[in-house]
Amino acid sequence: EAGVTQSPTHLIKTRGQQATLRCSPISGHTSVYWYQQALGLGLQFLLWYDEGEERNRGNFPPRFSGRQFPNYSSELNVNALELEDSALYLCASSLVGLVSNQPQHFGDGTRLSIL
Amino acid sequence: EDQVTQSPEALRLQEGESSSLNCSYTVSGLRGLFWYRQDPGKGPEFLFTLYSAGEEKEKERLKATLTKKESFLHITAPKPEDSATYLCAVQAGYGGATNKLIFGTGTLLAVQP
Description:
The complex is a heterodimer of chains A (115) and B (113).
Chain A: E1 5-7, E2 10-13, E3 19-24, E4 31-37, E5 43-50, E6 53-57, E7 64-68, E8 74-78, E9 87-94, E10 105-106, E11 110-114
Parallel strand pairs in A: 2-11
Antiparallel strand pairs in A: 1-3, 3-8, 4-5, 4-9, 5-6, 7-8, 9-10, 9-11
Chain B: E1 3-7, E2 10-14, E3 19-26, E4 30-38, E5 45-50, E6 56-59, E7 62-66, E8 70-75, E9 84-92, E10 102-103, E11 107-112
Parallel strand pairs in B: 2-11
Antiparallel strand pairs in B: 1-3, 3-8, 4-5, 4-9, 6-7, 7-8, 9-10, 9-11
């Protein structure tokens, strides 16, 4: 069974540009989560989507946004990129999103570098 | 505020030398505690979920335990391939609006042959 897949693996942008990151969940999973892992910091929760709806967002500015498509895949958009946005962006998926304590399974991330 | 603290930050062991990693947490209403393993350049790999105090889970050389305030990941007779960063995360609160995981900063384990 295929795991969570993310693309691209690496992305290099300059300040002020926009970045789009993509994620395909494990087959049968309806919930998709996005996390940021900056160098030296722990994973920080960004966004949670389930059944096409944004269910929860972490303490990030509005220029971090995303969406979930009918096939449950998701994309994360980051506008007006800043140097501190350089990080590994991880996507995770889980079964039965609402009222759930099911484990989240992660992809290998997109490394976003801002020059 | 919900918080997860892991110790030690780094641990170096000789092959076969057993030890434990600690994860202490302060949360309102624990729904689950999760252990992950992360190798360099990779995403976290799910290991265990623990839901209530007294619960234990085992997988090969790893055993996870849970109390009301902390969790331990015991590593018995480790091998060099066990070298990785081990992450602890909690899911807290009630209701579907809180499915996010709150992560600790991890323990970097190095096992020398």
